[in-house]
Amino acid sequence: MDFGFTPEEEAFRAEVLEFLWEYRDTDGYFHRGKDTAGGVRRVYRALGERGWLSLSWPVEFGGGGRSPAYEFILWDEMAYARVARPPMGPGLVAKALMAHGTDAQRERYLADLRRGRLNFCLGYSEPDAGSDLAAVRTQARREGDHYVVDGAKCWTSNAHWSDRMWLLCRTGAAGSRSRGLSVLIVPLDSPGITVSPIPTLDGGRLNEVRFDGVRVPVADRVGAENEGWQVVASALAVERHVQFPPKRLRRDLHEVLAALDAAGVADDPVVRRRMGELSVRLAEVDALALALLGEVIRGEPAAVPAAYHKLAGTVLAQDIARAGVEFGGAEAAVAGTDTEFLWRQSILETIGGGTTEVMRGLIGRQEFGLS
Question: How many domains does the chain have?
């Protein structure tokens, strides 16, 4: 297995680093109680102008036709710089539209997604359907050439500033599980939608989005009715390589090391040993990320490699932050310090995008045949 990048890919990395210097103060990867939406939108538009939101899109859809390695490099460096996370629109949504959308939908949405002018959030989780998306209850009832949507989504990132929601809803019978789901594109300024904040442990914001008789044209359903599960699954399969960039962890480790050095404990043998152990585990996460990238490049099923990577990476994020709090003294536990913030934020990473328990269950079933 070749874990290296080509000279052309490394040259692209140099371009990315030069670009990031201009946006180094955006600070949109984390929120920490700040409203960073405006800065993040500016970054997305700038990326769109360079064609970097559509690096691996097929050329026939206006993309660059490049390897997914270019996307990995871009979002890995964005994570280290703490600038922004990958947007859902040009990634998951656009690739699902290419695979399952109509010509009219592609014409309507792809150009603005490619240019960073249209922002999507994901309407998946619900109060009683967090990790078990087959239990979704938000209902879309067909009335002529519209659906009427009622229900609620929760823990939705960026719903308060997105333009559209990629909504997973139930169009089949109540007990139909994954066989009765459909995907709708819903404008978030539609009558009957209410967006309410859910404060998070790290000072950021998630959202509850309620639907009260929201009318959505049937023309904005993606894929066939009751076949939304296939749409969602195929979209996730091509985006796993950018969802938890390992350089985010490298930046975490560098910040904790700097804090421990400032506290005068970096040369303590116990601290040095722990930091060495964490550095080795970081190298393991790097290897898992590149193995996952290889699977995506080859077009192979990547659910298990993605679960290994997310599990190892998010647990390591907690352990890096825990070491900072454990060895950093009383100052490291003061609210608002970088080390204390990393500890709070790292807990959320083991929940979003599939909990640690879900990742372990997936590995157990698909890798080891456990039931």
Answer: 3
pLDDT tens-digit series, residues 205-220:
999 999 999 999 999 9
Catalytic residue among 239, 255, 295, 340: 239
Within 10 A of 112 (CB to CB), how many other CB atoms are there?
A: 15
What CATH number corresponds to the domain at position 147?
2.40.110.10
302: domain CATH number is: 1.20.140.10
Tell me, yes or no, whether 360 and 271 share the same domain. yes
b/e for 303-330, b at 16 or more Cβ within 10 A? bbbbbbbbbbbbbbbbbbbbbbbbbbee
Torsion angles phi and psi, residue 188, rounded to 5: -80, -5
- Domain of 67, in residue numbers: 7-85
353: left (phi over 0), alpha (psi -120 to 50) or beta: left
Please indicate, yes or no, whether the overall pTM of this predicted structure exceeds 0.85: yes
Is residue 15 part of the annotated active site? The answer reads: no
User: Number of C-alpha atoms within 13 angstroms, CB side, residue 278?
Assistant: 25
pLDDT in tens, 53-101: 999 999 999 999 999 999 999 999 999 999 999 999 999 999 999 999 9
Alpha-carbon dihedral angle through residues 45, 46, 48, 49, given to the nearest 10 degrees: 120
